[in-house]
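Quick one: co-fold with adenosine-5'-diphosphate.
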Amino acid sequence: MDIEAVGRVIEGHSVRTVKIGGADLDGVYRGKRVSAEQFLAAAAGGFPQCDVVFGWDIQDEVIGSLPYSNWDIGFGDVIMRPDLDTFAVCPWEEGSASVICDFYTEHGEPLPIAPRSVLKRVLAQAEAAGFRAQMAAELEVRFFREDQESLREKGYHGLRPLSPGLNCYSIHHASLDEPVIGYVCRMLNEYGIPVEAYNREHGAGMYEINLRYTDALAAADRAMLYKSAAKEISGQMGVTPTFMAKYADDVDGCGGHLHQSLWSAGGQESVFWDASRPHGMSETLERYAAGLLATLPEFMLMYAPNVNSYKRYVRGTWAPTNLTWGLDNRTVALRVITGSPGAIRIENRVPGADLNPYLAFAASVAGGLYGIEERLAPPPMVKGSAYKAADADLLPQALPEALERFRGSELARRCFGDEFVDQYVAFREWEVEKARRAVTDWERRRYFEMV
Ligand code: ADP
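Sure, here it is.
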């Protein structure tokens, strides 16, 4: 879309306010609201934004020690330039539209630490190798009949789920939630995020919402907007969703599975398909899978970025625990789905719903390309339960381990750039230290009276 076309949409839908912003390092959509007139007048030049959006943590605490965005530099501005192709009217919010921006330095270069820039960098590597990645994020989510105040009043304990039972796949239970979930999905569709399907998941108030796959950059945009929009839309009904990977010890976590396939540069032909080979799986697919598996430990930080992410990797909870792959197998890290040239894909089941979509997508494509480039061969596929695959290496077990693997990764520097790696390492060091100091409910229950 060009600015004239955007102007016509603004006029046609009586848009008064445009939400402008992009993903921070956690994948949170942050930015500002500007009037429609201001947007049309200034979009070409971009909008200034304090660089602290890359200098604080998920609770807005300034970290101070990051290479980029710190007290010594003085928190100047970066420039947000709207990607007009992402301009969309928000049907749940009268007179509002949103647009995703790319962040630029004051010298007009793409900001190398911005997650969308990191993904674009990797997709340019794919393009140079003659490939186009098609992806979809499948994010599970838990809805609660709570609002911002009630969550705080209850200290995030004893919350009331949207629906109380497990009732996975139960049609009539899903119908009971339809006034909320159906409305969320309808609004997403009207917003331009096609929802292919949704179902009750294995948890109170839990749903899986499948977004239609598309080019990797647009798919990451959709995943970020879906998380943000789901919060906005259900919030209007006094309902709050959470995309935490593991919201409580004794319940299943929320996966953020990534479906991916690789196509020829023009997008006509899936290079994952080869009718002459078993299950139609091409050699390219096998190499891509081998690369994904080989790089999972060193890129884990980009799939599982939070302390909480690692609580999800528990046997028998539908989450993977080890470096395995298999054919239509939901216990492995990489589930291969075959059937036809259009459908053949790899589902990376490692990320949780707390993922930053841009970083998780970048890690996936970079890992797959690495496998193709190095002509790697994957290990044998696991048949049956991967939880019993005793000789398979385990996924990194906690954030500090993932951090050390990422810090030591030369490949990460090559794929994502030194500036991003240095910033992200320092960013997660802060998270590890914050968690190290936190005294949890579990510790009080366990030790208070006994030690
Ligand atoms: P589930 O894991 O819930 O069983 P499915 O196996 O049905 O889900 O996968 C559905 C997801 O796969 C959807 O998001 C869909 O858009 C995506 N998908 C389908 N074909 C492709 C493809 N060729 N490349 C990438 N994603 C795809």
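If it helps, The longest helix spans residues 171-191.
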